[in-house]
Amino acid sequence: MADCYPYRITSRRNDLTLIWRPGEDDAADELVVDGEGRILAFPHLEALRAFCDRNGWELVPEGGATLDLGLVRRWVEFPGHGAVPAGLLLDAWNFFEDLCHSLKATPLSSPRGRVHDSAYEKIFGGEALEPTAGEGAWTEEETAAVRGLLRAGLGLWEQAVPECGTG
């Protein structure tokens, strides 16, 4: 089994820690699911560590990530309600893609077209949300596409782990 990394998800209501594994060779990255296809979620790192120890899995605590879905939800639902770092939106996008793959769900942006591809490329520059970024800034169409994708990802998260939510 590949190394396991803790992935902490925060929101205003709750914090959970998941197990994330990088894909080996050409395999996709994934979140660990149980035998019934549900995301394994733990209330804190110690519980996750104990689970990994019981199952003989190597937990690599360095490099663990934290994703604040409360901030992501605020950006999705209230566009003019404060700025968020582009890196947070990129992390959320990637997390939701991994979540989709792990749950064997329908892709969030199906079919993913030129607008999504362009928005994804621009976010790497870190200035996609800055109107002063010129050609590197998201267009209104790209911003709407990203909001739609993240809204779908938040919905999938709430279905996967309903007791956590993101509010």
By helix and strand content, what is the structural category? alpha+beta
* Low-pLDDT runs: none
Give the number of DSSP strands: 5
Q: Terminal Cα separation, in Å?
A: 34 Å
Q: Strand percentage, roughly?
A: 5-15%
SSE string: EEEEHEHHHH
Number of domains: 1
Shape: globular
Largest sheet: 5 strands, mixed
Radius of gyration from the alpha-carbon trace, in angstroms: 16 Å
Name the average pLDDT. Answer: 85
Question: Can you offer a commentary on this structure?
Answer:
This protein has 167 residues and is α+β, with helices and mostly antiparallel strands. It has one domain. The chain is 41% helix and 13% strand. It has five helices and five strands. Strands 1, 2, 3, 4 and 5 form a five-stranded mixed sheet that branches. Strand 1 (5-10) and strand 2 (15-21) form a beta hairpin. The longest helix is centred in the C-terminal third of the chain and has 21 residues, at 140-160. It is globular and about 50 Å long. The protein starts with a strand and ends in a 7-residue tail after the last helix.
Give me some keywords for this one.
167 residues; alpha+beta; single chain; globular; 41% helix; five-stranded mixed beta sheet
Q: Quick summary of this structure?
A:
The protein has helices spanning 45-55, 69-77, 86-103, 114-123, 140-160, and strands spanning 5-10, 15-21, 30-31, 41-42, 65-68. It has five helices and five strands; from the N terminus they run E-E-E-E-H-E-H-H-H-H.
